Amino acid sequence: MRTDVLVYDGFDELDALGPYEVLSKAADVSLVSLAGAGTVTGSHGLGLAVQGRLAECELLVVPGGGWNDRAAVGAYAEAQRGELPEAIRALHEHGTVIASVCTGAMLVSAAGLLRGRPATTHHRAIDALRGQGAEIVDARVVDDGDVLSCGGVTSGIDLALWLVERHRGAEVAHRIAAEIEHERRGPLWRR
Q1: What fold characterizes domain 2-190?
Q2: What per-residue string of b and e applies to 40-76 under the rule 16 or more CB within 10 Å gives b?
Q3: pLDDT tens, 24-38?
């Protein structure tokens, strides 16, 4: 399962790196950006080397960051610019499964992929996501097939473990959870 984790200036580090670590234990995972090679700076100041350019893949993980603060860099700024949501929409149209962490759901919503669909996000962005037409589900992880979402920050680890279970089986997901000493939490909602 070729997986890319999207990073951009202002992304929340744990939103991206928690799922990256989990998924890298079961799949080929790369950190990608719209611009490709170079560095991005997370919302907490971590500089990160980008491994590649955003391109077709089987699974794209979209982290949040900076939405609730309306930060000058981050998910809110990227949604306003529109280029990143357009790229997410194009990948989805070509068959990429999209999985958002925290307020990454707002970028997926800006891409037009959550209107009328079940989803969740960080608790402080729920009203904004509902206002954009998503059907809010009270769950830690929401699996609607080709579009998944999860709540705030640490729920990205549960999302990633669910994706491992979905694609590689429960035994592999349980092994990885034990290895990283993570106690999985729910609820999980799936169609």
Answers
A1: Rossmann fold (3.40.50)
A2: bbbbeeeebebeeebeebebbbbbbbbbbeeeebbbb
A3: 999 999 999 999 989
